[in-house]
Amino acid sequence: MYPLKFRPILKSMVWGGEKIAPFKSISTDQHNIGESWELSGVKGNESVVANGEYAGKTISEMIREFKGSLIGKSNWEKTGEEFPLLIKFIDAKQDLSIQVHPDDELAARRHNGSKGKTEMWYVVDTDPGAHLMAGLKKAITPDEYVERVNNNTITDVLEDFSLQPGDVFFLPAGRIHSIGSGSFIAEIQQTSDITYRIYDFGRLGLDGKPRELHTELAKDAIDYKVYPDYKTHYTKSKDKENVLVDCKYFTTSLYELDKEYTLDLKALDSFLIMICIGGEGTVTDSEGNTETLRKGETILIPASTESVKVVPEGNIQFLTSYVK
Questions:
Q1: Which residues are catalytic?
Q2: What is the pTM of this model?
Q3: Which residues form the Phosphomannose isomerase type I catalytic domain (predicted)?
Q4: What angle (nearest 5°) sits at the alpha carbon of residue 41, between those of residues 252 and 68?
């Protein structure tokens, strides 16, 4: 099997901007594109292979055919035909709603066995004034949370961060958050589309009606603990792996290369996702299969691959993610 590319699934959102199409070098007549789902196993939104002999097959069909050799033996045993991660680019022209996601236990109980949603954000680009909110800066009770939603003061108790490219935020299930205007973000998350919308700034949806809020559902999902810091800090080094997040759901790293680099995957019982956030180069697997990797593209490296050689054309920046 060879490195796989997929057709992006574009989502129009009331808060969406105009950056995704030029960033990914694609043409589209859609407006307000807020999200590009790069690799998805979400039912009804399953990614379709775009290259090679398997073009036209969904990710679920590929997993059904290749099982552990595509996603890793342990992943196949745990998640079956459902690909375990969802990869997105998000372009926020306006603030997204304030929201929270349930953990695995709550999601399974409420949503017919569904997974929860732990995620992370890597800030790819920003406009002046770009910001986001993540976590509580003041302890509140569940009842105070409801009161603040109703009297429009919920933002007063959330940490608000000014953004720069390269900023990273890890968001375990239960953490209140909102991507702010001017943010262009790569998101890596569990395969789940369960979102509890807490507050939407009084805005109307694309249909001209207020969007549904899930105030009561969110009440039991929120982690009300105040943490000392919600931003992920890391030291960036060129031409080597920079681990950003290492949790039970995914391990994500950043690479910034201006010379040839080989990723040794022999000990990894997992697929490897490569998300290009800048520059371009070629990716050659241990079988000699070569694919280009350009800014805005995502490639899935099968678990059977023993190594990947990346040759930058000038320079290349990409994220990798896998599931242990």
A1: 197
A2: 0.96
A3: 7-112
A4: 75
